[in-house]
ABC transporter ATP-binding protein (Lentibacillus salicampi), 310 residues
Amino acid sequence: MILDVKGVTKVFGDGGKSRNMANDHLTFRIHEGEIFGLLGQNGAGKTTLVNQILGLSTPDRGDIDLLGESVIQSPARARSICSVQPQSQVPIGLLTPKQAVSLMGKMRAGNNFDPKRVGALFDALNMQEWANTPGEKLSGGAQRLTSFCMAVIAPGNLVILDEPTNDVDPVRRRYLWQVIRDLTNDGTSVILVTHNVLEAERTVDRVAIMHEGKFLAQGSPSEIKRSVSNHMRMELSLACEPADIEIPGCALSAHQNGSRLLFSMDPANVPPAIDWAKDQIDRGLIMDYSLSPTTIEDAYIALTSGKAVG
Ligand SMILES: Nc1ncnc2c1ncn2[C@@H]1O[C@H](COP(=O)(O)OP(=O)(O)OP(=O)(O)O)[C@@H](O)[C@H]1O
């Protein structure tokens, strides 16, 4: 086992009204070669948890063992075992991606660093075109890919990636997920912090859904989905304001995200839902619709919105 998190609790504030339980008795384990997804909305407590795993902050209660030793006792050791891609961009100034990634590789692996790995990584992510561009001239996505490469060039036993695909184009996102998957072949474990539930579903072995400091569910994506597995989901592309559309009565756990509207339903309600969707198209209220079995996103929405859909 790589990581054993036991009842970790972190409270911010003075204990009065401003008391904020950012992590509330969190318990989980990560095994060698496993990809563990940490899913949660803004403010759910993900970064607070990661900071404690890295020994940057101390739990108020509970303990964290990393490769058999307490992080609380040896915080600096934790930072040598883990490599991290932080949520914010890593400023590399005038360094090029090639220089920044090579420097990180030498710092982490010393004489064991193989410079050929930088080129192989850039090839895998199709980012050779920026290899020699100064950091300050890189696009947001290229910067994000560079900080990803810096985290994985000489990975520790545990790699922590915080929203690695933000600003990255869809094609390179796929390459990036493949690189993450390849990392685990030699036993490296990964914690993937993300809001992007659907992308994560394809990559993670296990996932925890976090809300207001607590784990609402943890398990494999299929275990998590089982809570809503007998439902179908309909996804609509809106051509109108959300307020102009009347969601059908069969809808469960409806959720809007920009011009996307999602809802789940009992399979028996699929035929009338299709009739309803066709009618909305005829009236110009939606552009198109799609139907699919429930996804982990549905489970996530149902759990975090507190709606019972099972
Ligand atoms: N240093 C701090 N002092 C006080 N409150 C804090 C501190 N750090 C985090 N918090 C609070 O703890 C809660 C959890 O924050 P955290 O940053 O861990 O969430 P998150 O899930 O990482 O969010 P995001 O997805 O937006 O990064 C929030 O309510 C936040 O305001």
Notes: The two ends are 33 Å apart (CA to CA). The first helix runs from residue 46 to 53. Residues 12, 20, 22, 40, 42-48, 87 surround adenosine-5'-triphosphate (CB under 6 Å). DSSP finds ten helices and 14 strands in the chain.
